[in-house]
Write a structure and sequence with these properties.
This protein is mainly α. It has one domain (2-292). It is built from 13 helices and two strands. The chain has a two-stranded antiparallel ribbon with strand order 1-2. A hairpin with a 4-residue loop joins strand 1 and strand 2. It is globular, with a radius of gyration of 21 Å. The model has no long low-confidence stretch (mean pLDDT 84).
């Protein structure tokens, strides 16, 4: 269901048929989180570590939206530590960190100009994080506009936001995302409660719980970075900046909607997700024929030059 959510998303369709850094960023992010999910699922193989490091290294040179993959690499080993074989986990952790350091050093030497530009962006904005985050956390008017614009753009706002759909669609989308966030909160609370009480029938999948923690961290870091870089300058960030995290976002959305709907009936979650996928498919076709194709008529007289 998460894959269908991605495939029927209008903004995703527009990005993947474009020849630009966004398409490469989506691919690298997908490769990265596919490998991470495989590692968390217990398939600890060397090629998954290679995928993680390769995606992070190339992402560092591709686009600002994929810078996040490097710091996320530092977090992954801590999610892999297991109590039963913690000694082996610690050794693997040290080897992974060594590989990450070698990779960073290699890219800095092979691509000095790109690496220097990326490092300057990091340094320039690192000192501003402590000053910029309070406004984002307390949800002021500026940060509220910033976050809703990202959210709406994730659904459909394209061509420097030159066109999008009617406002009612965006309000419905925001409501669904809110329900999904509530569902994620319910999932986490119920999972922790079932582990504390040690019930025979435990709630939730431990892998899902681990993925939720890591994916939420990734989304929070990406939005915070976009806010520091753009929002503090009163620039509205486009939803496509979050697309390297499209797998985590899709997973969180589907799990959240299912958990929220299951509060009303045990089978309501599956019905809600299937209904949403169907509506999304119809919405995609509506956007395609009514909004997208009339603009992409490949003529120099296009109302949006450059799109």
């Amino acid at each position: 269901m998460s894959f269908l959510f991605i495939l029927f998303l209008p903004q995703f369709l527009l990005n993947v048929v474009s020849v630009n850094s966004d398409s490469l960023g989506i691919f690298l992010g997908t490769l990265f989180f596919y490998a991470v999910t495989s590692l968390f699922a217990g398939r600890v193989k060397i090629h998954y570590f290679v995928f993680v490091l390769l995606a992070a290294g190339l992402g560092f040179l591709t686009d600002r939206s994929t810078f996040l993959l490097i710091p996320l690499c530092l977090v992954i080993p801590f999610f892999l530590i297991r109590r039963k074989n913690y000694q082996t986990s610690i050794v693997s952790l040290l080897v992974f960190f060594l590989g990450l350091m070698i990779l960073v050093a290699a890219f800095v030497n092979l691509f000095p100009l790109q690496a220097d530009n990326s490092i300057q962006i990091f340094q320039k904005n690192l000192g501003r994080i402590s000053q910029s985050l309070p406004e984002l956390v307390f949800f002021g008017e500026t940060s509220r506009n910033f976050l809703t614009f990202i959210l709406d753009g994730f659904l459909l706002k394209y061509g420097w936001s030159a066109f999008g759909v009617a406002g009612g669609f965006y309000y419905s989308w925001r409501a669904l995302v809110l329900f999904s966030m509530i569902g994620i909160g319910v999932f986490v609370v119920k999972f922790v409660q079932s582990r504390i009480k040690k019930k025979t029938l435990r709630f939730g999948n431990p892998l899902h719980f681990k993925l939720i923690g890591f994916f939420l961290l990734a989304v929070i870091m990406e939005v915070s970075a976009a806010w520091t870089l753009y929002g503090t300058r009163n620039i509205l960030a486009q939803g496509r900046y979050i697309f390297p995290l499209i797998l985590p976002v899709a997973f969180l959305f589907v799990v959240g909607i299912k958990t929220f709907s299951d509060l009303f009936h045990p089978q309501a979650g599956k019905i809600a997700i299937a209904s949403f996928i169907l509506i999304e498919f119809l919405f995609l076709n509506f956007c395609l024929w009514s909004y997208i194709l009339p603009v992409f008529h490949l003529s120099i007289s296009s109302p949006h030059p450059g799109v």
